[in-house]
Structure prediction request, 805 residues.
Amino acid sequence: MLRYTLTRTGSLLISLIVASLVIFFTLEVVPGDPASFMLGINAQPETIAALREELGLNQSPWARYLSWITDLVQGDLGTSYTYRSPVSEIVAERLVISLPLAAYALALTILIAFPVGIWAATRRGSFADISVMGGTQLGIAIPNFWFAMLMVLVFAINLRWFSAGGFPGWDEGFWVSIKALTLPAISLALPQASILARVMRSSLLDTLDEDYIRTARAKGLTKGQALRGHALRNALIPVLTIIGLQFSFLLAGAIIIENVFFLPGLGRLVFQAISQRDLIVVESVVMLLVFAVIMVNFLVDLAYSWVDPRLRGRR
Amino acid sequence: MNRAIFGTVAAAALLAGATAQARDVTIGMQLEPPHLDPTSAAAGAIDQVLYSNVFEGLTRFSSDGSVGPGLAESWEISEDGLTYTFTLRGGVTFHDGTDLDATDVTFSLDRARAEDSVNAQKALFANIASTEAVDANTVKVTLTNPQGNFLFNMAWGDAVIVAPESIEDIKANPVGTGAFKFSDWKQGDSITLEKNENYWGEAAKLDGATFKFISDPTAAFAAMMAEDIDAFYVYPAPENLAQFEADPRFTVLAGNTEGETIMAMNNKLSPFDNKLVRQAVSHAIDRSAIIDGAMFGYGTPIGSHFAPHNPAYVDLTGNSNYDPEKAKALLAEAGYPDGFTTTLKLPPPSYARRGGEIIAAQLREVGIETEISNLEWAQWLEQAFKGYDYGLTIVSHTEPMDIGIYARPEYYFQYDNPAFQQLITDLDAENDPAKRTEMMQEAQKIISEDYVNAYLFQLAQTSVVNAKLKGIWVDAPTQAVDLTAVYWEE
Prediction:
């Protein structure tokens, strides 16, 4: 067990180090200079040089990499070139929107996908099954930003139930904030729920064909009892895998939806930082996301052993 | 009885609530300031939020572009034009309660011209030889050479007066002297200003203002239509303007900016080092097709690098009228009867991307093939601006009165004409308005007749505003959303 943990931690560290090298030096070769961007096209060369000096850009890439990485392990994400404030503060401000939004969207995804997937699986081949699965095809096919714009048109411009976007801040009240995140969360959840419902359905159908379900039915359980008691838990493994991937995606991949609803989330921060060549922000945020994805995968691994006791012994 | 009192109180509260709400304003903008120090970055968004609202300079721009007194009440210029003695207004305080005095002014000017200064417009201060605080209300600035546009330069957002006490934290917490004080910045979302009750001049009519940053044009449209915001400054999607114009809830303001939109040519790169080629390119371009096609009709044709609303403007569009036959003849004369192939590098704004496609088609008509590449700003600065690695590119030069860039041979279009450089040096030193006008007209003519660049149009500023909101600047003599005179019509 200890050995397992050690090798596991070792490989985790190696992947983090490799990731940091790849991230840093990929961005290093991207053309563009944050100091020239800041000072614009009327600035004089010596002014740009002065700013480069102030930002520490005149050091060699290796020196900058080393100082970045040593700060990083101490929990210091550095100071943004453009905003000139600590990256950790900037990221924290964005995370209070991106995390709840991702969680909200994921909750909606699960709330929609589970009943729909189970319902369709138990009615395999029926008209209901076919039409629901057709609907999920549509949910995957519709681009979520287009769906988001439709919702803005209906609920914000015509009905005036929601504002067209923006985020008031949590200090304005919990429900106000949740309301502001509702349309974005629905637009994010729709394609994800469609994918998850399909996975749920097919995974459940696979287990429903298993011998032990026939045995359970033969010993007198109803279809519903067999489903709840035996099939569902076994069908969950692929579903959990997908949920893990979806959460990582929702955390970082909401950028288009953030743009449609002008939410100050993490995706927009990265996008803005890239265009302004605020490399330290890009590097640190991407590094954080790498870390988050690794952690989510780790948690999903743990969840496997929760739903499947056999996996616990294997270690 | 109780109920009656309660009713009255409730009604009063409602009324108070209604008027209080109507005294705030929410303004949409596409770009967010990177930080809040106008004296150390070029980003126009910083000035748009803070200029004249939070920070003020010795002089200031008014809505028609003229320069008038700001924190300096009056000034005297010595006979030789070398010494400016500014008298500061009395009773001006910074938002942190400290008094404005002459040392704040000398500090601000000295900081901007210091060796390690990171002021994006350091050239504005290059001519200052020394500054001196004569007494608490008097500042004496001595110049190296006489400079006709010194007062104009001091009106720029990059020349606002800051205080040494608050300079450390200025990027996150700007402390100025203006009619509004900075209140809050939700990064990525909005900046809030509130009324400065102790303002030295006429108090603002609004209680506060929120600038909301919406980069996506579709989202801007939705936010405006849902009336989440009261005005969108420089509305990013001209294709929607007709719809706003037709809607009685909104007014569309279309005014001038200082943005000369040009297609720059690399004057040291073959074949653009040949004046005939540059002339051919200029004649191959149909400005009105670009203005209609890319800008939906908003924009004024220009024939030189000068703003049409400036009194010294001369209309030189005739030098480069649309004439593809003449363009072909000129190309043949220059030795390119079959045309040539070059690069056209386009930065992100829609005037460049949309305009670039139209221009490429027009150039193809006369035999010039262009390889279009779309660049981000950072790439553009690296490749085209710094690296001179381009044939053609489209940029709007938004700094006011910037014809002087043609006197900088290292500037990205690499125009090197000693006669023009001398003219600009003389212009800088000239104080007589009539002579200055004459010289500015001469300068416009030289670059127009040298066909340095293809001059396209003066960028229009189109803003969508709630019909009841009054006092927003129509023209944009500098990048500012001056809210000091903005009010809600009852």
